[in-house]
Automatic annotation (TrEMBL):
It holds the Pfam family Amidase. This is Outer envelope protein 64 mitochondrial. It comes from the Eukaryota. Residues 70-457 form the Amidase domain. It comes from Tripterygium wilfordii (Thunder God vine). InterPro entries: Amidase_dom (IPR023631), AS_sf (IPR036928). The chain crosses the membrane at residues 17-33. Coiled coil: none annotated.
């Protein structure tokens, strides 16, 4: 029995007691109403920025210099940055409150951010990211998970989740993120927007917290090809003119067999688009896994004992394993001292990865770097000076929020098979949205050789409109069932990802 009811029962005839009881009841109603109001306000706030910002601020661009100085190409545009970039007088949080608590404010702004400000863009805030740049889902237990505007009940993808969301939600014109083993490519695909991972070391990482220097890149998200192109010219310091080259698209057929999306909505759209364009050679097709197995000799030391070197999927697994080992080794070198001294509170999947990294003792460090070197050379040999490899960006984009422990690890293992290609070769990769399959965004990735960033950006301007026209044609027509699979690919998925 409540205290109010006890008061009524004992002092039923006392008017003062009734006044107290009524007052308590009214207060309770007021508190309840206030609680509900706050919840409504919180939901409204979430709808306003999709939970994507950690810090809101405004950093105005540098003034336009008088002629003959070049016009600021990003004037009037707004952008946001992941919480991994330094901004003068702000603490760079690395997606974790313990990191923020144990580090001081930055004394300089990251070089990439400064370049954007110098060219007329306005920075409006820092965005949520996976802790320490290690996650793939975009979930953050400390700051909340940004809401994917395309699929609110599904994760936005990570690690640069907030930056992808603010672009997809049209809160900014573009946003910066980082990509080590897929931190930009996954959220670009999940949120249905354009993304660009540049050639390794093509953009300065000064003022960006390191994860794994051999794999780290600064990338960006946009909704339209023109903005992607303009931002790329600023960050990559590109010349406006480049001699026209023919383009040769090479389709990695075995990789599309791993995708859950029918080829009619990915590879076939690209193929039909370039059929009608001038300056494109007839498309080529290949088994990329077998090419890797034959052209990366150092992978032999990382294959499973029973695996055949001619087994393409085995080579892809080995490549992703090498990338994972390389990231762990360099992450440990960068952050082991801080991890052991601070003992930060981390989400379970991030904690497991950090523990594994700190406790790891890679057998052959030289072997890891040798694979990377051979991968770069093999790509140059494959693509020469005009080749573009066409692959699916991710195997699956249907990952729900609030997942049970362990599922994100399985998803990460699966994703790394495709993501290891650009990360280990250091080549540039562009993510292009191609509408939806059911309720899920679909994308395709174009990869070109190291240093071909302008070539790839120019290709987007050339094919984007006809590509979207072809997407519309396919979306309005009946699509035949397509499993995309063969025995080898199906066995690969079943063997490694049986619980998905």
């Amino acid at each position: 029995m409540s205290k109010a009811l006890k008061l009524i029962k004992v002092n039923a005839s006392n008017p003062k007691v009734w006044a107290v009881v009524i007052g308590v009841s009214v207060a309770g109603i007021v508190i309840l109403a206030e609680t509900q109001r706050r919840k409504r306000n919180a939901k409204a706030l979430l709808r306003k920025d999709f939970g994507a910002f950690i810090k809101r601020f405004e950093i105005l661009p540098f003034p336009q210099l008088p002629p003959p100085a070049a016009k600021q190409t990003l004037a009037g545009l707004t952008f946001a940055i992941s919480d991994i970039f330094d901004v003068k007088d702000y603490v760079t949080g690395f997606g974790n409150p313990d990191w923020e608590r144990t580090h001081g404010v930055a004394d300089k702004t990251a070089v990439a951010v400064t370049a954007l400000l110098r060219n007329g863009a306005t920075c409006v805030g820092k965005t949520v990211m996976d802790e320490l740049g290690l996650g793939v889902t975009g979930e953050n237990m400390h700051y909340g998970t940004p809401v994917n505007p395309q699929m609110p009940s599904y994760v936005p993808g990570g690690s640069s989740s907030g930056s992808a969301v603010v672009v997809a939600a049209e809160l900014v014109d573009f946003a910066l993120g980082t990509d080590t083993t897929g931190g930009l490519r996954i959220p670009a695909s999940f949120c249905g927007i354009l993304g660009f991972r540049p050639s390794h070391r093509a953009i300065s990482t000064i003022g960006v917290l390191p994860n794994s220097q051999s794999l780290d890149t600064v990338g960006w998200f946009t909704r339209d090809p023109s903005t992607l192109h303009h931002v790329g010219h600023v960050l990559l310091r590109l010349n406006a003119l480049e001699s026209r080259r023919t383009r040769c698209f090479i389709f990695a057929d075995d990789l599309f067999q791993l995708s859950k999306v029918p080829k009619q909505k990915t590879a076939d759209i690209v193929s039909k688009t370039i059929e009608n364009l001038s300056g494109y050679e007839p498309p080529q097709h290949m088994n990329f896994g077998q090419y890797i197995a034959s052209n990366i000799p150092s992978l032999k030391g990382f294959h499973e004992p029973a695996a055949s070197m001619q087994n393409g999927t085995s080579a892809l697994r080995a490549l992703s394993s090498v990338m994972d080992s390389l990231q762990r080794y360099e992450f440990k070198t960068n952050h082991e001292e801080w991890i052991k001294s601070v003992k930060p509170r981390l989400a379970s999947d991030i904690s497991e990865y950090v523990t594994a990294a700190v406790n790891s003792t890679p057998g052959s460090i030289k072997g890891l770097y040798k694979v990377r070197t051979e991968m770069r050379a093999a790509f140059q040999s494959l693509l020469k000076d005009n080749g573009i490899l066409v692959i699916p960006t991710v195997v699956d984009s249907s990952l729900k929020s609030n997942l049970k422990r362990g599922y994100s690890t399985e998803f990460r293992d699966r994703a790394l098979v495709l993501l290891s290609i650009a990360s280990m070769s250091g080549c540039c990769q562009m993510i292009i949205p191609l509408g939806k399959h059911g309720e899920f965004p679909v994308s395709v990735s174009l990869i070109s050789f190291h240093g071909a960033d302008k070539f790839l950006l120019d290709t987007l301007l050339d094919i984007y409109s006809p590509l979207q026209e072809q997407v519309g044609i396919v979306s309005n027509s009946a699509v035949l069932p397509d499993t995309n699979g063969n025995m080898d690919a199906s066995a690969f998925l079943k063997e490694k990802f049986s619980r998905s």
